[in-house]
Description:
The complex is a heterodimer.
Chain A: E1 6-11, H1 16-26, E2 31-37, H2 41-54, H3 59-64, E3 68-72, E4 89-92, H4 108-124, E5 129-133, E6 144-146, H5 160-178, E7 181-187, E8 189-191, H6 205-220, E9 233-235, E10 241-242, E11 244-246, H7 247-259, E12 266-270, H8 278-289, E13 295-297, H9 308-313, E14 324-325, E15 328-330, H10 347-359, H11 366-371, H12 381-392, E16 406-413, E17 418-425, E18 428-434, E19 443-448, H13 449-456, H14 462-468, E20 472-475, H15 477-493
Helix pairs in contact in A: 1-7, 4-5
Chain B: E1 7-15, E2 20-28, E3 34-39, H1 52-61, E4 66-71, H2 86-96, H3 102-119, E5 124-129, H4 131-137, E6 147-151, E7 170-175, H5 183-192, E8 197-202, H6 213-226
Helix pairs in contact in B: 1-6
The structure holds NADP nicotinamide-adenine-dinucleotide phosphate.
Amino acid sequence: MTDGRVEVLLTGASGFLGHYLLAELLAYPNVRCHVLLRSPMSASAVRLDGLLADIGLNLSALIAEKRIVPVEGGLPDSLSGVDFSGIDVVLHAAGNTTFHANGSGEPMKTNVDGTRAMLTLAADAGVDRFVYVSTAYVCGEQVGHLPEAFYPTLPPVRNDYEHSKWEAERLVWEWGGQQGVATICRPSILFGDSRTGRASAMKGLYLVAKATEILARAMDSGRETDRHQIPLRILGRSDATCNVVPIDWAARQIAGIAMKPAIESSVYHVTNPDPPTHDEIKCWLEEYFDIAGGRFSGAKWPLQDANHYEDLFYSLGNICLEYFRHGLTHESRCAASVLGGHRLLDREAFFRCMKYAQATNWCRSRSEAEVFPAPIRNVDSKWYFESFLPESVPLSVVAKVNELTAIVRYTITGSDGGSWVSRFDRGRLVETQSTPATLEPEFEYRLSCEDLADVVTCHRPLQDVFFHGSAEMFGDVERALKMVPIIGEFIKEFPVVDRECPVPVC
Amino acid sequence: MLIETAITEENVRIQGQDRMLEGILSYPNDGACSSALIAGPHPFLGGDMRNNVVSALLKALVPQGVVSLAFNYGGVGGSEGGPTDWPAVMSNFWKDGTFAEESDWIEDTRSAVAALRQWCDLPPLLIGYSFGCWAIVSNLQELRASAIVLISPNFKQHAFDQLSECSAPLLLIHSDSDFTCSLSEVVAWADSIREPRKRVQLAAGEHFFRGHEAKVSGTVLDFLKGHNILWTD
Ligand SMILES: NC(=O)c1ccc[n+]([C@@H]2O[C@H](COP(=O)([O-])OP(=O)(O)OC[C@H]3O[C@@H](n4cnc5c(N)ncnc54)[C@H](OP(=O)(O)O)[C@@H]3O)[C@@H](O)[C@H]2O)c1
């Protein structure tokens, strides 16, 4: 610290939580933030610029004023250019939110190896405060009242993500014992801004909302059932709670914790003291989307005897209901910041978030596409066909092409390729199987990973890739051709805009 | 005389019946011997003025002294128009391959020929590819053509009766493996249409002639030279 100035090294600034953290840190007039941005830094800076502009900050001006110092680097291996000397606090919020290891080494690589690398460099430079953003769900399947304390043994974690976050916590805690003061912040599920409804990423609870919109849209297009008597089984207990916190509140708490002088290592739960129950969320969703009829059920996922509406609702997969938990509460010093009688997420705040989600097409608006001007070369085809299409097709214009009934195979060649077969029934994407598939396709598109990336990011029309490029059509070519404009319209409505394909996150 | 000449390609606007269309006008800088309108495939089947066959024809014809125009039908690329109730239109098209307002694209073709006439008063050669075949043949009553070229016409989907109303030289190019019809069907259909006509069957081009575009354009050039529409060497 020089002249009262606090030098903070922030990782993950270009993420959902990170850019809010940056804004909160900058609200402290004596703070200068060194932000770690991944290579190519120009592209990361363009994205950060867009995110900050949305919340009223000007990146160029802040750089000119030396309030923000961009630093190029990546976890775990590309930190050699990062200067830790003179840093007072490291706020490590970068993380990989892949639930299940997929062969790329993630989420362990970023979360565990990356945190280890950050801790080593911080120790070498004599940094004495390290704040780590973990997750409230590092507790795994534990229930009861969870203390704000490090879990000395691995909790009964449910996925690789939780495991990696606990491993990282362990490293941070050990560092605290030997090198300086370690602080672990455990936010629960991050939701939209309580004031504006804004969110720059929509996963978790947003998927439940999106699934509800799919049902509502099906009702709009005149199915025979009364929209207020939809026979839908909701898998779970009505009194289980969903511990969501607004992103602005969570960021303010974490920044506050990081800025507060600390003399000993500690753990904070950044959780909602009065989270909504399943039943409340159901009521809010029903009211917002003007549908009703769902009832809670003890049935198990996957439903063997799903009806048409359940097929639709669960077309987004097991929509994260595992994070609605019964009998789990958190000790939390942050809770004191919530005024009595005030709820962090109430009906009005929830509606604001829904409005924002719809207005931005669930975060996939064209304006966002403009934030990512460079062609994306790394669309994960498995993610695209198994997650993105099932999530997006029901919300797209394709769902209104009532006559569209077809079984299509997509074969993506190249090292990241694979083959998937999708069945459309009256505009609905009913199922997608990865091969070997039992479905018998009527026609097939075959294209390379690079062509897929060009096409789904709107950089090249599918017909162009076919007529002038290397893509092929097989089987009933006439139907394959007829489907091209339908796919084209879908891609215009739902372009892939993320620099890397997102994966489900808590 | 073989014309080796510089070429200009212009993006042009074409006044359609009630909408503006976009086109590519390509011409040799040192004089022309003919003009050509190239009508491309069905807009709902990936048809646009940058289609591989359309592009190959432009590339081959212009250096031979042919002022050539390709255009986008309404609703394609930068051309105005297109279906308003897109899902309903697509549903119908998916069901039976029809689109009630296809006749608008016939109009567009007529407007494109009219525009071409304004830029070049030589009698036009009318070239249709796939759906474009029907678009030009449907206009034959009103268009005086120096020759007609039909490439992979979908005669099972559309009627070509108006062909008999025009006596200009006619070239039919088809592949030996087209998804729209069997080889015997296209041969029988070709035999049933009026004379004079020439039928050329290309091997392995399917309907799309991907990788065989030069064969298509070469066949067209030979035919035109045979009818003294192009300058010969
Ligand atoms: N979202 C939630 O509901 C939630 C809940 C609890 C805890 N958390 C924790 O909060 C943190 C932020 O989550 P988020 O939702 O904001 O995630 P996010 O939107 O995916 O952002 C992740 C951030 O980490 C950066 N990053 C990822 N891998 C990196 C690497 N290998 N090297 C350098 N930077 C890397 C990303 O940079 P790029 O922009 O370059 O990709 C981005 O800035 C994570 O640690 C997560 O575990 C999140």
